[in-house]
Design goal:
Two copies of one chain form a homodimer. By secondary structure, chain A is of the alpha/beta class. The first copy, chain A, folds into three domains: 62 residues, 434 Repressor (Amino-terminal Domain), CATH 1.10.260.40; 125 residues, Rossmann fold, CATH 3.40.50.2300; 130 residues, Response regulator (Rossmann fold). Helices cover 43% and strands 17% of the residues of chain A. Chain A is built from 14 helices and twelve strands. Chain A has a six-stranded parallel beta sheet, sandwiched between helices. A six-stranded mixed beta sheet of chain A has the order 7-6-8-9-10-12, sandwiched between helices. In chain A, α2 packs across α4, α6 crosses α14 and α9 runs parallel beside α10. Chain A is elongated, with a radius of gyration of 26 Å. The N and C termini of chain A lie far apart (74 Å). The interface between A and B is large, with 49 and 49 residues.
Chain lengths: 342, 342
Amino acid sequence: MYSMTTSAVHPPRGPVTRKDVARYAGVSTAVVSYVVNGGPKRVAPATEAKVQDAIRVLGYRPNAAARALKLGSSETIGLIIPDNSNPFFSQLAHAVEDAAAELGFALFLTNSDGDLAKERRHIRNLAARQVDGVVLASVLSEPDLADLEAAEIPSVLLSHSERPAGLTSVGVDLAAGARTAVEHLVGHGHLNIGLAMGTTTANEADDREQGWLQALEGAGLQEGPIARSAFTREGGYAAGKRLLASGHRPTAIFASSDMQAVGILRAFHEAGFSVPEDFALVAFDGSVEAEYSWPPLTTVEQPVRAMADAAVRALVGEGRGEPPRHHVFPTRLVVRQSCGCP
Amino acid sequence: MYSMTTSAVHPPRGPVTRKDVARYAGVSTAVVSYVVNGGPKRVAPATEAKVQDAIRVLGYRPNAAARALKLGSSETIGLIIPDNSNPFFSQLAHAVEDAAAELGFALFLTNSDGDLAKERRHIRNLAARQVDGVVLASVLSEPDLADLEAAEIPSVLLSHSERPAGLTSVGVDLAAGARTAVEHLVGHGHLNIGLAMGTTTANEADDREQGWLQALEGAGLQEGPIARSAFTREGGYAAGKRLLASGHRPTAIFASSDMQAVGILRAFHEAGFSVPEDFALVAFDGSVEAEYSWPPLTTVEQPVRAMADAAVRALVGEGRGEPPRHHVFPTRLVVRQSCGCP
């Protein structure tokens, strides 16, 4: 059986160009550009309808690479996160994707896996790709952004608690969040409150530790034991075992991330202890996994969506080009059962 | 105190161009292109060293958009996943990112949130951006790829169990994996094995259900109760409650995803039941969350890294342009405690 397709009877043609669209719609190529790019000049609705009709009929696809060259923009932002097997960061990445899409930007996602060399490599690659901006959840409080600066690519630090000079950053008040968590445990009558503190490659001081200390001081309590390990499930598991083996075993623990708390729960379950009966536990982040652990975790929630929106707007939205500032969002204690509440 | 920087004494200049590099290195601009793009012509090592030196000294950054136009390639692939709050998909996304990076490709990440209209919109956007290829974990077994085909952009279906005509796809043998899981529960002596089956927007038949049926038939057992709900923690939670309320309450359950099993665990814990003492549970996916639930989940592991590698290689690696085929990977039962094993 033979079949005759359109391409068999018409001579092959190249891709439909802006010129073809302009001719079909009876407008200039500039007007086609305005419609395709949503500006810079406004186009009358009737004219725009004619152009959109021509685009549809001819099957015109604006060439993204050619547009990027002309506009000096690829309508793309890059995101670097330390670990997307941590649901806090995968939720953050999703929120950044949504916020970017709303402004017409696509998202290059890269994971640094908490590795400084890998973070630097991603920064260099994104600079070479001439993205419109980079959202960086760095492993450092003062990351090296020389490659982006040289390429004049703006960047915003996300999930960041410092106020780095000359950079816009978005974060929460970690110390205040940690204080709320520890004060809640104090309210349950605990006198020996330990800390499972996450550490990064950079091993810098963290405001969550300050918040824990401040709450203990405020209540006139002595420092409980500290277990330092990675901000991961595995890290929490190791910290949980160490806290159980502690000579001055705490009755309550503040964990600096949900993932660590999940690991601590496993260590306690394995050793035959119950939470909150034997140990109370409060975590930090407010990721979805905290809601489905057993028992469900009382945790300090970071407003992921608002933080992602602020970062993207500062980078390529209405905040673009404004002087650097540090956006601080409040946290919220989400009370479930791991703290001892009914 | 005054500081004098280089930029303060030299007049500002525009970006370094390929021409500048050529002049500095004493070669033609074509040779600079060959070095930057790794071809198409070969360059003598001594000449390449001169060009690399010039690139370093002048701080030249090849313009990605200009290169994409010239090469007909943006060195970019798109990935569409249904839900990155599911760690199986966030691990899959990370593996695709790594596999793509190894071949020099950056990754546009998009989430369809299990929504068909959103999936179509992402496909259209990626086509307009002229990516080199799209990896699609679709909500449908036969997704609509017309936009990609019209733009001559290749695509590969990932985490796919069907053999769609004319398309390359990568997946596991879902039925065989499910059979292994259910046979393991049969081996523990269970006679009434229920099924928590995930459903998608498309609500199509799923081979995991077939595998469950086949294992029951093979053991001469009657069908246990089925609870259908979303492939999520929430879906599993609802399914767990329904299975508990079932008139013919099962003693063991096969859940079609880790996330559903995590939700089922919560429903059982809340109702005061123990796993595996009161109910045995085996899940599917092998994500990291399954290792840290309580009890840790026995689960059918999908080889995420191998699947991602195969998809990316078929799309833009050595498999590019080869006739469509369906890559099937074997699964592996990871035995932990939820099944009743010690």
